[in-house]
Amino acid sequence: MTDSESIYSVSELNRETKRLLANHFRTVQVQGEISNLSLPSSGHYYFTLKDTQAQIRCAMFKGQQQRLRFKPANGDLVVATAQVSLYEPRGDYQLVVEHLAEAGDGALRLAFERLKQKLLAEGLFDQERKKPLPALPSRIGVITSPSGAAIHDILSVLKRRFPAIPVLVYPVAVQGDNAKFEISAALAKANRDPQADVLILARGGGSLEDLWAFNEEIVARAIAASEIPVISAVGHEVDFSIADFVADLRAPTPSAAAERVVPDANTLLGAFVGFERQILRLMQQKLLRQHQHLQWLQKALGSQHPGQKLQRNAQRLDELELRLQHALQNRLAHARQQLAIREQRLYRSQPLAAIKNQQRQLQFFRQRLQAAMHGKIAMLKSRHAAAAQTLHAVSPLATLERGYAIVQHHGSPQLVKSIGPLNAGDLLDTRFADGSIVSRITDICRD
Length: 447
Prior knowledge:
By secondary structure, this protein is of the alpha/beta class. The chain has 5 domains: about 10-115, CATH 2.40.50.140; about 140-260, Succinyl-CoA synthetase domains (Rossmann fold); about 265-300; about 305-395; about 400-440, no CATH class. The chain is about 45% helix and about 20% strand. Strands 1-2-3-5-4 form a 5-stranded mixed barrel. It is elongated, with a radius of gyration of 48 Å. Keywords: Cytoplasm, Exonuclease, Hydrolase, Nuclease.
């Protein structure tokens, strides 16, 4: 008797068959002729692919049709990129088509997928290896045809958004047999002589064959080897190339790449103006608070401010210094007169020994006078410094900074020195080094 565990229901068998097909085949490319094309109101395509010996049903859903470059018709020879599947309700084996290309593009599509899978396995598409773009590049490099529409679009956008940033163009062919070599050489040159902070690799739209240079392995590896961030902007928004996957950023069009690589200068300027106004407002508020605090200090200290006493003492010191200078000058003048008299006497008597002796004495007195003058000035300055230090020590502010406080009757300059005249309910002003408070007496404890 058959074991019940080996008996499938129809649904189970179809489901298991669908799973086996999906796991074994994954994505396949099939070439055939379209027949029995059906276009229902849902927008999906249903058709049959056939050759001379066999046929298979196909379904292409509406969301996959955006990348089609042609309108399929019965009799078209096409290459379908699809998932092998099974329509479970009817048990129909079918292809779920992801992309459809005319048969002439079939070999290119196959080469595209093979290189894509190869580079994907090597990790060249990994997000971790992609380099960030500079926030504001000092120079932008553009690798493209110098006569194509792409360079004009890029330069127009850059001029509008941030005209101050210079652009360095690396002219290359973007189509034809030599295009892949020129593009990879331009990438290498830009890295050997790194004048640009970011590179835009750009080309306008075209057929798969027109864009094929950007699907070449030599170009992909040159992009991956670039130490300068690369933006790929090849074709239109629906076009994808190998360069798009390897590049640090893919832009749907050359104009979009230019939009992405620089900020808008007017927006940036507006932000800077806003920051400037905010900083100015904060500075004005800070200065106003400091000015108000200074006015309070001046009002609180009044004539007892140590700075005023220091100023008066400094003026007194200046007067004493002037008097000392006058006195020294008078003494020096008197000494010169005496010296002149003695020189005349010596000149008449010609005593050489006496002259030398007087010269030594004169030098001695001169040194003593200079020493006395400097000593007197130093003594006066020392007294002035001591007086300034004493004034600071007895300054009310210095007392407050040592942790003491000044207590006054509220609204009165009278100091409170004892609890004798105080009563419960009185208001007091208490001043500290960094501010003051108003308090009310709730209880009095007398010693």
